[in-house]
UniProtKB/TrEMBL annotation:
One of the GO BP terms on file: DNA repair
Organism for this UniProt entry: Westerdykella ornata
Domain of life, per lineage: Eukaryota
Keywords: Kinase, Transferase
Protein known as: DNA kinase/phosphatase Pnk1
Lineage of source species: Eukaryota, Fungi, Dikarya, Ascomycota, Pezizomycotina
SUPFAM superfamilies: HAD-like, P-loop containing nucleoside triphosphate hydrolases
GO MF annotations in UniProt: ATP-dependent polydeoxyribonucleotide 5'-hydroxyl-kinase activity; double-stranded DNA binding; polynucleotide 3'-phosphatase activity
Region (Disordered): 1-35
PANTHER family: BIFUNCTIONAL POLYNUCLEOTIDE PHOSPHATASE/KINASE, BIFUNCTIONAL POLYNUCLEOTIDE PHOSPHATASE_KINASE
NCBIfam families given in the database record: DNA-3'-Pase (TIGR01664), HAD-SF-IIIA (TIGR01662)
Cited InterPro entries: HAD-like_sf, HAD-SF_hydro_IIIA, HAD_sf, P-loop_NTPase, PNK3P, Polynucleotide_phosphatase
Length: 462
């Protein structure tokens, strides 16, 4: 029995195909999927190699799904750019709402057959790019797909069906493009592969032996996607995000929406939620920067309570500015419960050591426990309020979680769910001196780190 071909140079997870569950009869809709494409998907690879095309799948880190389609006579090799140029031009495309859309008119395709070309010109345009020497590839976020690790968990039937539907749809689409070879990269998790992060791009470069610094002609490469941050103008629907535009910016290549690229429409206004590079340039803004520490040790023994959203810079502020003043730290992320934090803080105070409470402390009820502790020891309690906005906090959290290292993530924290930020915002009550604090000091966020880390932080991450 022949083995399934794999893609790339590294070992990867085995393809996890499943049989489709019984489906209910639905009204027929016009689709781009042919019976030939469906039959080809279920044909054993040893038999398909004798036919017109093959499709090979692999999974990286239980997260990134990669499929390579090769037509008869195609090798999947990169080839040489037109004119013998050494640097390769890349034409990268999003998948849904860029190359294809649902035939039913629904936002999401209901099954593998519910698709049609976004515009009839799509196949011709992509073939033309290939003939001009471009490496044509597809890079897509697919959060609705689950790639469960079969060693530890069994995927649910709905997850199996969504994965199978996606694979069938991809086979049908790629077989009709009539290209010698084309690959699709689908990011299924909130990790380094998901746009606007560039993990998919780098995986693609490695698969095609384009890792050298000068291997890609970035100036003449581009990415086309529908998530461009466009606003609702002239009756048009607002884009769901700006991740495709941000993805291209992170790579340093041109960006186009499908309307701009396939239909030559004028560009529409767009808005980004958070501009890290602009934030760095605006470091002198009084509300977004701090110069040194606004805190000095004014009491022989006291408590400093930090208040702010996850990702606001509380822990970094402690390590950089308060530890050197002799403060011990209690943190609920590491101790897990408030009771344990209070217990450890009592021990420190009994030993004559001042304490920093490094938690979010969003509301007056939570802060009251610490004010009561300070009163029981007859020591002052001060409050430091971190004012970073939610977009900045989510950016900080993502940079921290996806860049392991002593400078970026010394406590190996994982990526927080969006609920962590919205939950804080819903509970937040601004601290007041009247609660029992000696003073309340507001602190904005200022990036601190090496030039190399600053370059990383300045990319789009959310």
């Amino acid at each position: 029995m022949s083995t399934r071909p794999t893609l790339g140079k590294r070992p990867s997870s085995h393809d996890r195909d499943v049989s489709p569950p019984p489906t209910k009869r639905r009204p027929q809709v016009q689709s781009g999927t042919t019976s030939k494409a469906v039959a080809s998907f279920f044909t054993p690879l040893s038999q398909k190699e004798k036919g017109p095309e093959t499709m090979a799948w692999r999974v990286v880190n239980d997260s990134l799904l990669i499929g390579r389609f090769t037509s008869r006579g195609g090798t999947g090799a990169v080839g040489v750019a037109a004119g013998g140029a050494k640097r390769r031009k890349i034409a990268a495309f999003d998948f849904d709402s860029t190359l294809v859309t649902s035939a039913s008119g629904k936002v999401f395709s209901r099954d593998a057959t519910d698709w049609k070309w976004w515009h009839p010109s799509v196949p011709t345009v992509l073939r033309g790019l290939h003939e001009k020497g471009y490496l044509v590839t597809i890079l897509s976020n697919q959060g609705g797909i689950t790639l469960a690790n079969t060693k530890s968990s069994k995927p649910a039937k709905n997850d199996q069906k969504r994965l199978l539907d996606f694979k069938l749809k991809v086979v049908a689409v790629l077989s009709q493009l009539d290209l010698p070879s084309i690959s699709i990269y689908a990011a299924t998790s909130r990790d380094q592969y998901r746009k606007p992060r560039t993990g998919m791009w780098h995986e693609m470069l490695e698969d095609h032996d384009l890792e050298a610094p000068d291997a890609v002609d970035l100036e003449n490469s581009f990415f086309v996607g529908d998530a461009g941050g466009r606003q609702a103008v002239g009756g048009r629907v607002k884009d769901h995000s700006c991740v495709d535009r941000d993805f291209a910016a992170n790579l340093g290549i041109a960006f186009h929406t499908p309307e701009e690229y396939f239909l030559q429409e004028e560009a529409r206004p767009f808005v980004r939620g958070f501009e890290p590079a602009a934030f760095l340039e605006n470091a002198g803004d009084a509300d977004s920067a701090r110069k040194g520490s606004p805190i000095t040790k004014t009491n022989p023994l006291d408590i400093i309570l930090l208040c702010g959203s996850p990702g606001a810079g509380k822990s970094s502020f402690y390590w950089r500015h308060l530890q050197s003043l002799g403060y011990e730290r209690v943190n609920q992320d590491t101790l897990k419960t408030r009771e344990k934090c209070l217990k450890i803080a009592r021990v420190f105070l009994q030993e004559g050591k001042s304490v920093v409470v490094d938690n979010t402390n969003a509301d007056a009820e939570t802060r009251a426990h610490w004010i009561a502790l300070a009163k029981s020891f007859n020591v002052p309690i001060r409050c430091v309020l971190f004012t970073a906005n939610p977009e900045l906090c989510q950016h900080n959290d993502t940079v921290r979680a996806l860049n392991a290292g002593p400078d970026t993530n010394p406590e190996s924290r994982t990526l927080l769910p969006r609920l962590a930020f919205t939950g804080f915002a819903s509970r937040f009550q601004e601290p007041k001196v009247e609660e029992g604090f000696q003073d309340v000091v507001k602190v904005g966020f200022e990036f601190e780190g090496s030039d190399e880390l600053k370059k990383v932080w300045g990319k789009y991450w959310v």
